[in-house]
Amino acid sequence: MEKGNHTSASEFILLGLSSRPERQQLISGLFLVLYLVGAAGNLLIILAVASSSPLHTPMCLFLSHLSLVDFGFLSATVPKMLVNVWTQTQSIPYGGCLAQIYFCILLANMDNFLLAAMAYDRYVAICHPLHYATMLSPRVCALLLGSSWLLASLHSLLHTLLMVRLEFCAGTAIPYFFCDLLPLLRLSCSSTRLNQLMILLVGGLIVLGPFLGVLVSYVHIVSAVLKVPSARGRRKAFSTCGSHLTVVILFYGTIAGVYLSPSSSRSAGRASLASVMYMVVTPALNPFIYCLRNEDMQGALRKLVSGKASSHRL
Which GO terms describe its molecular function (predicted)? Predict the structure, then answer.
């Protein structure tokens, strides 16, 4: 192969969120706080669900997996960004970039699947309360979670392997603080038609399927709640969905901001900021969103933090 404008890149340059060093330091401080708060909050939720029997429900099981995913989101991107700022470097090895792509796609897919599973949980609880135990039995929950992790892993592996076959131009600067799929495809000197086709076909199915599941679930939920005669009953029913709906809006809204933006430089800046929302801010906020209205979760967290959790709870 001719040498020149083509290269098998050994590393990429992460441009981050600002080219000004003073702003980079400020941003890194904010990211460090978000990482510590988010990591602690998500790990506490996982431990609380595992140690408190009142939280051994399908919804809390899905929530614990969502917390694991959010912890993964934070850990896959923020530590590398902090190291780059503190060491005044911007590079990431080719293998590290591929690893970020794999885990970010995996975790984004799992977020998508889990939000759909949680919407289904709310649908069953409100529309079919008498059949809740059978429609969301331990076997059904295990099937939902197992198939979600399997599909997410295979989908992520597909895009990572398709990325390995590409060659890259001399410029390897990524206008994000982490390696993302679309910016890398724009840097490639090889044909990316197969990559784009798989994003459109497979990615479209994996994203739109759960999204439509969430949408259909809430259409049925709203229809059922509006039939409740008392205003108090309607408020109580809607309140059980408030936390989940907030997270759904945050997740899909920021995903749209990243992946539906035109590829101009100004739009790339907006997409980079939107990526901060769904990769860092939303995972850090989710524990607080879900704990605000869940008294059982609050009680379990208080016992866990104070060290008074009963020894017989597993």
Answer: G protein-coupled receptor activity; olfactory receptor activity
| pTM listed for this prediction | 0.87
pLDDT digit string, tens, across residues 225-248: 888 787 777 777 777 787 888 888
Measured distance between the N- and C-terminal CA atoms of the chain, rounded to whole angstroms: 60
- Find how far residue 64's CA is from the centre of its chain: 13
Q: Domains along the chain? A: 11-306 (1.20.1070.10)
Could you tell me whether strands 11-14 and 173-174 are parallel, antiparallel, or unpaired per DSSP bridges? Answer: parallel
Spatial separation of the C-alpha atoms in residues 101 and 204, rounded to whole Å = 17
For residue 231, the tally of other CB atoms under 10 A from its CB is 8
Q: In sequence order, what are the residues at sequence separation of 6 or more whose Cβ sits closer than 8 angstroms to the Cβ of residue 85?
A: 16, 24, 25, 27, 28
The SS3 of residue 173 is strand
Q: pLDDT category, 63, cuts 50, 70, 90?
A: very high
| CA dist., res. 45 & res. 176, Å (int) | 30
CB atoms within 10 A of CB 93: 12
